Each structure stands twice: as C-alpha cells, then as structure tokens.
Amino acid sequence: MNALVRSPLGRSGPAVTPVGLGLAALGRPAYITLGRAEDLGADRDVPAMRARTWAVLDAAWAAGVRYLDTARSYGRAEEFLAGWLRERGIAPDAVAVGSKWGYAYVGGWRMDAERHEVKELTADRFTVQLEQTRVLLGDHLSLYQIHSATLESGVLDDEDVLGRLRALRAEGVAVGLSTSGPRQAETIDRAVGIGLFDTVQSTWNLLERSAGEALARAHRAGLGVIVKEGVANGRLTARAAPAALTAAARERGVTPDALALAAVLARPWAGTVLSGAVSAGQLRDNLAAVGVVWDAGLDERLAGLAEEPGSYWATRGTLPWS
C-alpha cells in the first residue's frame, strides 16, 4: 500500500490524507450499513462502542490516516473521538478533524428507536451545536460542515446561518457542507456560487455518479471534495457487491470495497474518501484502495453499475437501521 500523504483539501481546507475515517457507524449502536449484526454483534452498549471506536482510530492512526470525520448526530462519536485524542496526546496540527451540525441524535442508544436523528438547519441549531462540538473537540476542530444541505431546506439562502458560518471561518475554522439526495449536483452548484465554502462532502460511488460533474466544478472553483458512502452503505462490499465488481476485484487481488474506493480516488476532483470501517480488518481492506491502479478499462467495464439517482436514493431510504 502506498503511503498516505497529507495535502491541502482544496485551496483553503485542512490538510488531509487520501482516505479518511468517518465515524457515522461507530458512534451509535444502529446505522444503515448492511451486515451490522455480523460486524458488531449484540454488545453495543456505550463502553463496548467506545472501545471499538478507539480500536479503529488506533488502527487508522497507525496506518497514516489523518482526516477524521464526525457529526453531532453520530451518537457519542464526538465524545469518543475527543477522549481518544486526549488519551493519545494527539496535537491539533497533527490531524484534521471535521464535524457537522444540523441533525440531533434522538435514538436514546436504542436499536429499535422510532427515530434516530432529527434535522434542523437553523441559526439557533448551529449556535447550540457548535458550542457542544467545541466543548468536546476544542482546537482540534478543523472543519465544520452543514449536515445534509439541500435546496429544499433553504439553509443556503439563510443569511443568518451564512453570517455565522462566515464568522466561524474568520476565526480560522474551515466551513463546508455535506449533500445528499438525487439533487446533489444542484446543491453543490448553489454552494459554489455563494463563495463561502471551503469544502463539500457528497455521495459518489459506482452506483450513484450523478454528482460527479458538479464536484468537478466545485474542485475547479477551489473547494476541497470529501466523498462519503463510497461503498454505498455496504452495497459495494463483499457482502452484496454486484458480480462485475466482485470479479474485477478478485482479478486485482483486493476486496470489492477496496476497488469501489479506488474508483473514487481515481477521480481528479476527489480530495479524500471516507472509510466507514467498524473494525481494523475492514479498515485494512478499505486502505488497499490506495494501491490500486485504476484505468479506463475498469471505468468502461463497471460503467453499467450506475443506477438512476432517484432509484438509488429510494433504495438507500429503505435500508434498515441495524
């Protein structure tokens, strides 16, 4: 595997490695990733999930991963990460840490919660959650992102929110947004036009490619691009990968998830892609993507995996929290 070298995320974002670690699946007992029962087992109380999070963070650090991505809504992920940073004595300039505001975790640490998170993209929510994040992460906070900005939410037209983001940016914290849904491209273009954001975090994978051209435009405009859901919530792993991906991965001696993430890394606009690993073994498999040589033949061979965006997001919406 090639060394993970840090480089600036766009013109003004923090320095990151090609693969980062996302904590969405580690900070709470339930998430929409296929195969969690097998991956995590039944022991998902707070101490067990904290220990698992720290073990994966240790593995990521040892492998050279230097971008860590979390959110207020990821259960106790910020708390787990803060404790790990403190216990390991990791200085703020040694790692880039991104978090997000806008969703609140309401799952009560229950697997069978009726709702796990609630969205509110208001200036008041921003102020409250930024303070909560800063209490935990302090000077380690490198990047603060709107969580799942959409055109429909109106957050990109809310001058109160934008003003508070500008003030945060003036304090030296980069600001960004994450996107979701079949209209990601429109949201990305709107964000670029505002001229405020340092980064954008979007879903792009072999099944859902619709944001690619907009992400290329964002990259040309100087924004750093973070790619999430590169393995489509488990649909591009050995557990559920299409036959074409499985065969191509086998020929190259890697797992399907590694080849799926290599597809992301091959995009010239991709600054970093997030691993959602919940074990050191999964992380190791994901990191093999860095050493994969992607070529036009693979692009052509796997082009048929792409789904219509509406269909992709409808399928994602049916994935159970498990």
TrEMBL record:
<protein>
    <submittedName>
        <fullName>Aldo/keto reductase</fullName>
    </submittedName>
</protein>
<dbReference type="Pfam" id="PF00248">
    <property type="entry name" value="Aldo_ket_red"/>
</dbReference>
<feature type="domain" description="NADP-dependent oxidoreductase">
    <location>
        <begin position="54"/>
        <end position="291"/>
    </location>
</feature>
<dbReference type="InterPro" id="IPR053135">
    <property type="entry name" value="AKR2_Oxidoreductase"/>
</dbReference>
<dbReference type="InterPro" id="IPR036812">
    <property type="entry name" value="NAD(P)_OxRdtase_dom_sf"/>
</dbReference>
<dbReference type="InterPro" id="IPR023210">
    <property type="entry name" value="NADP_OxRdtase_dom"/>
</dbReference>
